[in-house]
UniProtKB/TrEMBL annotation:
Organism expressing this protein natively: Gryllotalpicola koreensis
Source species, domain of life: Bacteria
Coiled coil location: none
Gene3D superfamilies xrefs: Vaccinia Virus protein VP39 (3.40.50.150)
Name of the protein in question: Methyltransferase type 11 domain-containing protein
Length: 235
């Protein structure tokens, strides 16, 4: 299995526990370093790489997991086409994105920190015109179908996300999402203020297990790379 945009390595580690042999990559070396330091990450092959050009041969993987990754690449369709390339025929892709609409619990947290510190992302960090897609069940399913996946299905899921406070902040420092862009663009004093604002809010979000708890929703879609016979018919 290939874990796309592995971040802290959680999906990759869960896949290993389920019996998969796993490769994982992320665009940020700091995230790869973090994931590799985890004691439960033994056996996972981590590399730094960026969509839409991956250093894997055609058909290298039985499955690909893109967990909140497609929405972070400049050209989602090119990225999905590359993931389809590295899948074997009849291999499966699963992808998640944050849905548009009411702000998520994490989005509310980041907005409060930005409003308090004045740290906003610089202009020009949105996807290029024509590259974005609607963050809904139909939107994510549609972009998978555009990129040649078959048997596409999509649904909205609701769950409680539990995450270590330092692990979540490491994503901000790595420049992940709009809050990460804002952090990277900020001066040293503003970065310190952002962390202080974060630390002031995390106790109220921390459960008995010591982790932050966020009620969340996501769009989950899956698709299959056509078998060789089907692909020949399509051509």
């Amino acid at each position: 299995m290939l874990d796309v945009g592995t971040g802290t390595g959680s999906v990759a580690i869960a896949a290993v526990r389920a019996g998969w042999q796993v490769d994982a990559f992320d665009a940020e070396q700091s995230m790869i370093d973090f994931a590799m330091r985890r004691t439960d990450a033994a056996g996972i092959r981590f590399i730094t790489a960026t969509l839409p050009r991956l250093p894997y041969p055609d058909g290298a993987f039985d499955a690909v997991a893109a967990n909140f990754a497609i929405n972070h690449v400049d050209h989602p369709r090119e990225g999905l086409a590359e993931l389809r390339r590295v899948l074997r025929p009849s291999g499966h892709l699963a992808a998640t994105v944050w849905p548009w609409g009411a702000p998520s619990a994490t989005a509310v947290l980041w907005r409060e920190i930005q409003d308090e510190t004045g740290a906003y992302p610089p202009p020009g960090n949105r996807l290029p015109a024509g590259s974005d897609f609607d963050r809904s069940e139909a939107g994510l399913a549609g972009v998978l179908e555009e990129c040649g996946f078959v048997d596409v299905r999509a649904r909205r899921i609701e769950f409680e996300w539990r995450v270590d406070a330092d692990a979540l902040w490491s994503g901000v420092e790595a420049g992940i999402a709009l809050i990460g862009y804002a952090y990277r663009a900020a001066d040293a004093a503003t970065r310190v203020a952002m962390r202080a604002a974060y630390d002031a809010r995390t106790p109220a979000l921390t459960g008995a297990d010591g982790l932050l708890h966020f009620p969340q929703a996501a769009v989950l879609a899956s698709g299959t790379k056509a078998a060789l016979a089907e692909a020949s018919v399509d051509r």
